[in-house]
Automatic annotation (TrEMBL):
Residue stretches making up the RING-CH-type domain: 130-192
Gene Ontology molecular function: zinc ion binding
Keyword check for Metal-binding: yes
Keywords on record: Membrane, Metal-binding, Signal, Transmembrane, Transmembrane helix, Zinc, Zinc-finger
Name of this chain's protein: RING-CH-type domain-containing protein
Source lineage: Eukaryota, Sar, Stramenopiles, Ochrophyta, Raphidophyceae
Length: 314
């Protein structure tokens, strides 16, 4: 019995010695930044038993699961913030694209997006080119001029549906209320759809032709400015005429006109006002016709050809 007890004490002493040595090495490793768990595992196996070690490992697994769950939550929150940021950047990009396309359109330069939109819009219209080899019919001129473009703005069928664009635009500008709809099928004609193909430089021209009062005011301002400029240039000649001896010798005759009866003055004013007004109207009409021809040429140049001479899609 004594021998067995002595053997057990020796065995315990050896285990304690090994444990202390491993603990010393573990402390040195921890002090130098290393991580070693062999002494803890040996201590748990020796003094706490296997059940305690298994419980510790189970707790470690639970902690690892909790850490993974927290990492997933942080990752999900990060993904949501990133998605919101990307969505905001996409909205800003689309807004910038729209603003740039609008400004480029004013200068006559079309972006790729605007060109695609115009191409899709042009596919909805029937626009053909009249040539010498394949002349296109026209309901106004019977046959469209070579090199001009004809459009089908309404629901008429056959050759009746084609009309030369310059003739259609001239009718619309001269009598907008009469040619708002087709005279045959009574279908409303969307003229703005054709004007939208023109560059931004023609928008001011269209805005000027849509309001006749604007053109009249512009012509009147031009005439007034020209008269003022002419007066400045001829100031010396006018002053010399007013100070001439011939004028003052016939001053008593001029008094008869100045002190004439009021009805006579009104009658003379009417005689001079009507011819001046008619001349002004003729000038405005002639200028308007020139502007309409210019607008028709610019819009016709920008219109895409969607139908060939045989009536098939181009």
């Amino acid at each position: 019995m004594k021998l067995a007890a002595l053997c057990c004490l020796c065995y315990v002493a050896v285990i304690i010695h090994n444990t202390s040595v491993e603990a010393t090495h573990h402390g040195l490793a921890a002090h130098s930044g290393g991580t070693s768990s062999s002494s803890k595992i040996l201590f748990n196996r020796t003094f706490r038993g296997g059940a305690v070690g298994r419980k510790k490992r189970k707790n470690d697994e639970v902690d690892e699961d909790a850490e993974l769950y927290e990492d997933e939550e942080e990752l999900t929150s990060y993904d949501q913030d990133t998605a919101l940021w990307l969505l905001n950047q996409m909205h800003v990009y689309h807004a910038r694209t729209a603003l740039l396309a609008k400004e480029l359109r004013k200068t006559g330069h079309l972006t790729g997006l605007a060109a695609i939109v115009q191409e899709e819009r042009g596919n909805k219209l029937d626009i053909a080119l009249s040539t010498e080899e394949k002349p296109m019919p026209c309901r106004i001129y019977y046959e469209a001029e070579a090199g001009s473009k004809v459009v089908a703005p309404c629901k008429c069928k056959g050759t009746q549906k084609w009309i030369q664009w310059s003739a259609l635009n001239q009718q619309w500008r001269n009598e907008p209320h009469k040619f708002k709809n087709c005279n045959t099928c009574k279908t409303p004609i969307d003229y703005k759809l054709y004007y939208s193909f023109a560059a931004g430089s023609t928008q001011w021209l269209s805005a000027l032709l849509e309001r006749p009062a604007r053109l009249q005011a512009l012509v009147a301002a031009g005439l007034a400015g020209g008269a003022a400029l002419l007066g400045l240039l001829l100031h010396g000649l006018v002053a010399r005429a007013l100070l001439s001896a011939a004028l003052w010798r016939n001053y008593h005759r001029a008094l008869g006109v100045v002190y004439a009866p009021l009805p006579l003055k009104i009658f003379v004013l009417q005689l001079t006002y009507k011819p001046v007004l008619k001349s002004f109207d003729r000038l405005v009409k002639r200028l308007r016709d020139r502007l309409v021809e210019w607008e028709s040429a610019l819009v016709q140049q920008a219109l895409p050809v969607t139908v060939n001479g045989d009536g098939d899609s181009a």
